[in-house]
Input
Amino acid sequence: MKLTFIGAAHEVTGSCTLLSACGRHILIDCGMEQGADIYENADLPVAAGEVDAILLTHAHIDHSGLIPVMAARGFRGPVYTTGATAKLCDIMLRDSAYIQESEAEWRNRKARRAGLDPYVPLYTVIDAQNALRLFESKGYGETFSPFPGITVGFTDAGHLLGSASIRITVTEDGETRTILFSGDLGNVDRPLIRDPQGPPEADYVVIESTYGDRLHGERPNYVSQLAHVLNDTFNRGGNVVIPCFAVGRTQEMLYLLRNIKEDGLVPGFEHFPVYVDSPLAVEATRIYDGGLTDYYDDETLDLLAQGVDPINFPGLTLSVTSDESKAINFDMRPKVILSASGMCEAGRIRHHLKHNLWRQDSTVLFVGYQAEGTLGRKLLNGAASTQIFGEEIAVHAKIESLEGISGHADRDMLLGWLDKMETKPRRVFVNHGDDTVCDAFADTIHTKLGIPAVAPYSGDEYDLVSGACTAHGKVVKISKVSDGRRRANRVYERVTEAGKRLMSVISLSRGLSNGELAKFADQINDLCDKYIRKSGNK
Ligand SMILES: [Zn+2]
Output
């Protein structure tokens, strides 16, 4: 039994780890790399068609986003995850595929004019739909055995609706080991969802480290901070524009806004309108509002028991069509507009910024992390003007941010979570953190808790019986390969993946009857003849 680290190794995105045991290959998360990455990820050592199952911690694209690629390359499932994660993936993977297709369409228009090779989307909506058919839901606390010798259980990670830590028990050749994957661990006291559940016992822990070197500080009162911004802006006669991640953060903001309305914290503007203007956010809001009682925290369940809808209130409008979106500009009342993307890089938020940034009476309120190089970060850093849709827009609006709001546990919360384990694990593997943060957090775990800890690189492999590192990854920094070339190669990779699978099926077929073997060989040869003719080599 062994563990191979593939993605989010010394990086924050692209989570993916391979467990090989009992003759099976299981991926824990299969995420897309987003933003600036430093290291090349090692290739999966097995073909997609040879992966027997994927265990998914939560719906965020940096954990789930490459499942459609796996499906396109021959993975036939199942994908085990919680019911809420399956529901959220249903909208997020389709949305992600739609973005890939739109981007390819846009690039192809340019490529055709320049006489270049066509650009191939990473995956299509059809690939996403095929992948979604492979999902199988499991509840928190339920233990199931996907394969002989392997059992799996999910516990609440408190990071996003449906998010889970995953514990896997493997028994092979009389040896039993348990491995616990933290997934992304949540902050405490968040609206709607529960705090992270304490960890079950395990021999090995793979823990995230996004905030492994930072503390959130004292927990601020989000309701009063937000009410203050609303009062200040509405009294000036302007709008509060909130760039917001569509899934999770938008629904948390709705929860806080309902609270503000109910307690009458914006005197004189009690009936202020709130618009959610992002098709994905609207779909996600419907899922959050769909009675997923297994996933809510006690406060939310109390509200539901009293007949209160936690994220709905008078004055809330969900706009889906572009006409509905444009109509928001004609509502002259001071109002709140929640729109995506959260870092202002794309989506309808850019229209609302264009209409409000130049207005002295409006406020742009940031409620999430703004990565280096994004429009969100530029505005937070005090840009005096910016280009939106080719037009120079002056920044006169107030730029504010809601401090301390984070979906991740900080350093001490991560340590506290590990420290709740009654028996110390043999070793902790630290992933999902910036290059230096992973190493620093591994050191912190070792010095503060006395547990051996290491931050593996992509391609590093560990034997789980002995605990020894059995192979090292190459640690290659990313070189600038043109994106179009990478995408074109990806289609060819689908064939080489299928070829790898064929070789492993051939080695498994030894025990078949001579008749079956002859038939198999004939079929392979027929297929080869067909494609040799097509490629013009014969
Ligand atoms: Zn996440």
Notes: Residues 222-401 form a domain with the Rossmann fold fold (CATH 3.40.50.10890). Residues 58, 60, 159-160, 184 surround zinc ion (CB under 6 Å).
